[in-house]
Amino acid sequence: MNAFKLLWTAAGRRERRDLLWAVALAGTAELCAAGLLGVSGWFLTSCAVVTAQANTTWSWMYPSGAVRALALSRTGLRYAERLVSHGALLGATVSLRARMVHAVTTVPARELRKGRDGTLMARLTSDVEAVGGIPARVVPPLAGIGLTAGAVVTLLLVASPLAGTAELVLLAVSVAAAVAADRRTRDHQRVAAAARATARTGLLSARAAFSELRCLDAVDVARDQVAQSVARSRRAEAAVAAAVRRARLRLRLLAVAGQTAVLLLALSGPVFTQPAADAIGEVLLVAAAYELMETLPHVLRDHGLAADAALRLGYLANRAFPQGQRTALPATTAEPARTLVAHRVPVGVGDDRTTWTGWIGPRDVIVVTGPNGSGKTTLLETLAGRIAPAAPGTVLLAGAPVESLPAGVIADTLTLVEAEDWIADATVAENLWQAAPRADDDMLRAALAAAALEQLPLHTPTGPLGSALSQGQRRRLAIARALLRQPAVLLLDEPTTGLDGPTAVRMLTGVRRALPDSALVIALPDRHHELVPFTATHIMRLG
Amino acid sequence: MNDISGQLARLGDDDGQQQTARLLVGWAAIGEPAFRRAGTLRGLAAMGHVLWAAGLGWAAQAALRSQHRGVALAPVLSSAALVAAGLLLRAFLLAVADRAADDGAAVVQDHLRARLLLAALPTPGVPSEEVSDAALGEALDSEVGRLTGWLTTYVPARRAMLLGSGIVLASIAVGSWAVALVLVLATPLLPVNLKVIGMGTRAAVHAQLTATRTLSTRLLDRLRGLPTLVGLGAGEEAVRATEADDRELAARTRTVLRVAFLSTAWIELLVTVAMAVVATYCGLALLGYLDLPAVPSTMSLGTALFVLVLTPAYFAPARELARGYHARAEAAAAAEMLAEIIHAVPDAPAGGPSTEGSAMHRASRPGPAGVILEAVGVRYRDRPESALEDVTLTVRPGSVLAISGHSGAGKTTLLSVAAGLRRPDRGQCLHTVGSDTRCASPAVTAWAGQPSYLLPGTLRDNLLLARPDVDDAQLTAAFADLGFDDLLAALPQGLDTQVGERGWGLSAGQMQQLVLVRVLIHETPLLCLDEPTAHLDPDGEARVIRAIRTLARSRTVVVTTHSPALLDAADDVVRLSGGRLTATGRAL
């Protein structure tokens, strides 16, 4: 989807209207600016001619009034255009971002996890802003350039067809040159953007591993690696700057040709006679048109950035604005289903791959054990509909394949606590409220106690990604949060990591007591399954 | 409260504003020669404009002389030549000036990026805790880039304005001193206006940037948690909250922009009114209607056109400067953010600067290190209770010490003090290597944290960080020696395996073991491992314990763990509870 289309689709009625107004205002303002120069020159020449001919019938009041009117309207129109176009910019950015964030909620969990640090963030900030900037940075300037150049050429064609044709050709060549130069810069832009992303990823990874690197005496090496990516992006950016400079020089040289040509054609010889005042006015109009043309490379560059951003946003845009018929969502049942049916679900990896068939219903306890990499996490994510199963349609919730259901419908029935689940950078209480917005402090404390975390005060700050808590505390906070959902099916991925044996037992006991009628699916490393303080209805060994 | 008045009031009493300006000027000083050159060339480009105007004036005069008969070719050609020469001169001077400005900006930005990287990954020392990853990524990615406009337009603009406007004014004065006088009289209206523009846009840009940062911090956090939030049935809630923030930000920005644009409109008004006044004056003078004392009442058409078209050129550098003010406001807001990072002092290294940084442990092979902790206390900011309280402990050289205890008991903190990564707030930690005793230093330590990460790149790149001087065969052999050959064999691409962001592409257990191998091939007298078996299956655990036992002959090993098998393998076990040692010794 190209940038304009994406913007137009996302924009609300008000932004669309503002955008059209901005086009009209920008075009008129630039026409006034060019007109001011042209009419002033024509006015002065006419004054001189009138004096030379001693013509007393000519009134200077109207032309001089026109000059003042053009001057004032240019200022007023420009101000109005800026306000309107920036209003459209802000509104369009908000609408576009809201659509994209909404689309993000429908992206499979695995895709989100892949780019959760740098790329997704860049999509939703700089890319959205680049596309959202079109109403102020691209469309109005283009309208101004186009309208002015068109008006000037039309006027010239009427007054002096030869001069008009020459200018038409030269202005067209200027546009073509600017567009060609822009094509070349976009390749460099892409290289620069890729290198910047690499640098960012490298930097964040190096910081995550800082203690290791410090002991390895390798901080300098890691920093140099990031610096190399930075240098690569810098070189590409310098190439862009050079290309823009060259484009501007080329446009200025074309302006030399254009202005000289109109001067010669409008004034010289017996063939192209026209009043001197008209000729001078035309020359100045053309000068104004070329001055405006000089801004074209920058406008095209902004457009190029927006177009690239729109390309990168493509996969989200396709989710936000699906082409063709929308698939009807299955009607949500009044009562959430309480049973998950697995029919020949693929489990395990490689040679150990088998299938599993069974019911996960009220009060069931299913323990999944196996060594690292044996597919415990994959099984839990498949059951929770977070990833498309290797064989589609094998996990059924209320008779529908779980992977086809909207995430909200799944959330009514089951809750998955991932191995490294996300903790918001807020307080313990705010994290718990995500699951139960209306819960009071007593309910929150009860949930914490059930997860063996009663000693943690509700106002404790959690830090970015829960870094102010220990690993075991993070794990138990995520479990307490899940308990507040009162899910019919609770899936826990390695809930005992970072916990000592007694605490792990206390936590698992608390979970069972808090959800006596729910089904539990617990993935544990091999030896930990002995810790489960209640009878498992089914133990699944992988690997 | 009215937003704008709030913004402007904040600007009024903001002492930091001056400081930011000084900061920016200081940074720009590195590229100063280039900026000076750019300013001079841009100023001189006004000469091209003067030639162009002269050519137009000449052409008009020639046209007037030969009404309706067509102008003779000679005067048209020569005036066209003058116009072309003027435009050519301007085009080339501006191209060279732009290049100089771009070069200067590149020098400054390179310098700033290097300093950012140094602040993010300092040697020696630890990055300041106040600098968040999000702020760093943003700074490196876009904040430095936000200085470009200021560096290339504003910094050279002052010089360009003085020179360029001076040239144009002198030329106008030659044509008509009265018009020059009008322009000189209009000039004092400019600086006031420029200040207003500066204030208005600075407030706008600052509000936007500050709010954007808050928004983006919140947004980043929510996006990270989006899978979790969706799973908790709160995805829609997150979308709504984000949009509400966004709308508020947009509304605020719109209010401030109304003021900022008003001041931009003022300078345009000045330019256009000046043009209208000059046009009217010249027209009346040409018509001979003027009858004023002391002011010339006649004028030739050539002169009139010459001064008319030069009038906007007189104001053009000021307009450029005004546009520079926008860039300056943007740069100032970015500078505050950059300065926060660049000037965040790295926390001092635990062992003092002299003990870190050199590869002294690699020069010779010292024996295993001993660790002595004396009455060590550690307290984290924002936490009321101490993380460690009065811990006294000695680790014998060549022994394996396991630290056990409940989650949150302070095990990791104790380990990082022992490793020399964290300086204790009270008491001291010493390393003894041979007969040498000194402050604890990461230079004698190998560390594997929890969670542990590999860097993006190939597995080989990651391992070479630990031992830059080895080849593939030696690396493969090291895997075998340590008993991890299965691990390497399980990776289809072996040493060429690509590691993504935060180790993406490998399982948690694989990554943990690979980080461990990286640590083990880095030969140091002390090995500190934080829960090295947390993500491992029994096979992996047994493998790690075997490796630790093998290495313990030549190194000292300190581990934190819950694993009974690893506790059994240790020579000594200490138990932490609430930041205090509650039991030491073998029998626990």
UniProtKB/TrEMBL annotation, chain A:
InterPro entries: AAA+_ATPase, ABC1_TM_dom, ABC1_TM_sf, ABC_transporter-like_ATP-bd, ABC_transporter-like_CS, P-loop_NTPase, Type_1_exporter
One CC-aspect GO term: plasma membrane
UniProt-annotated location(s): Cell membrane
Ranges where the ABC transporter domain occurs: 337-543
Main location: membrane
Membrane topology recorded in Swiss-Prot or TrEMBL: Multi-pass membrane protein
Keyword hit for Nucleotide-binding: yes
Domain ABC transmembrane type-1: residue ranges: 31-266
GO MF annotations in UniProt: ABC-type transporter activity; ATP binding; ATP hydrolysis activity
Name of this protein: ATP-binding cassette, subfamily C, CydC
TrEMBL record, chain B:
Localization annotation: Cell membrane
Gene3D superfamilies: ABC transporter type 1, transmembrane domain, P-loop containing nucleotide triphosphate hydrolases
Gene Ontology annotations for the cellular component aspect, listed alphabetically: plasma membrane
Chief location: membrane
Presence of keyword Zinc: no
Domain ABC transporter: 373-588
Record key words, sorted: ATP-binding, Membrane, Nucleotide-binding, Transmembrane, Transmembrane helix
Transmembrane domains' residue ranges: 44-64, 71-93, 160-186, 259-287, 299-316
Any Pfam family hit: ABC_tran
ABC transmembrane type-1 domain location: 162-330
A molecular-function term among this protein's GO annotations: ABC-type transporter activity
Membrane topology of the entry: Multi-pass membrane protein
PANTHER family for the chain: ATP-BINDING CASSETTE SUB-FAMILY B, COMPONENT LINKED WITH THE ASSEMBLY OF CYTOCHROME' TRANSPORT TRANSMEMBRANE ATP-BINDING PROTEIN ABC TRANSPORTER CYDD-RELATED
Protein name per its UniProtKB record: Transport ATP-binding protein CydD
Species: Actinacidiphila cocklensis
